[in-house]
Design goal:
Pfam families: Flg_bb_rod, Flg_bbr_C. By secondary structure, the protein is an alpha+beta fold. About 45% of the residues lie in helices and about 20% in strands.
Length: about 140
C-alpha cells in the first residue's frame, strides 16, 4: 500500500516540474534579452518524463521521474519593429517561440494529472482505513 503512495508522489513531483517549466515559458514569452541583458530571445523549456523502475508496486505499477528539462531548438519568432531597442540592423526583433495555446493546453493536462495523483492518494488512504476498520 505504501508503494502506491510513492508512485503517486513521483507523479506529483514530475507534474510540478512540468508546471514550473510551463509557467516559465509563459512568463518569458515576451522576453527579448537573456539574463546578462544581451539581446537574445528566451528559449522555451520542455520536460521529458521517464518510467522510474526504482518505484514499483507488486501489481506492476511504476513511478515516473523527470528525465530531462530541455531548451527548445526552435528558431525565435522574428517581428519587424525598427524602433525597438533590441532590433537588429534590419529592424527585426527576436521573440521566444512560445505558443500560448499550446502552453495552456499543456498546463491543463499537467493539472489534471496532478489532480488524478491526488485522487489515487485519497483512495489508497481510504482503503487502508477501511482495511484497519475490518481487521480491528
Amino acid at each position: 500500500m505504501f508503494t502506491a503512495f510513492d508512485v503517486s508522489t513521483s507523479g506529483l513531483v514530475a507534474q510540478r516540474t512540468r508546471l514550473n517549466a510551463i509557467s516559465s515559458n509563459l512568463a518569458n514569452m515576451s522576453t527579448t534579452r537573456n539574463e546578462y541583458g544581451e539581446p537574445e530571445a528566451y528559449r522555451p523549456r520542455y520536460v521529458t518524463f521517464q518510467t522510474d523502475t526504482g518505484i514499483e508496486t507488486s501489481g506492476g505499477g511504476a513511478g515516473v521521474r523527470v528525465a530531462s528539462v530541455d531548451q527548445s531548438t526552435e528558431p525565435p519568432n522574428m517581428k519587424y519593429q525598427p524602433g525597438h531597442p533590441d532590433a537588429d540592423q534590419h529592424g527585426f526583433v527576436a521573440y521566444p517561440a512560445v505558443d500560448m495555446t499550446t502552453e495552456f493546453v499543456d498546463a491543463l493536462e499537467a493539472t489534471r494529472a496532478y489532480e488524478a495523483n491526488i485522487g489515487v492518494i485519497e483512495i489508497t488512504k481510504d482503503l487502508g482505513a477501511q482495511t484497519l476498520r475490518i481487521i480491528a
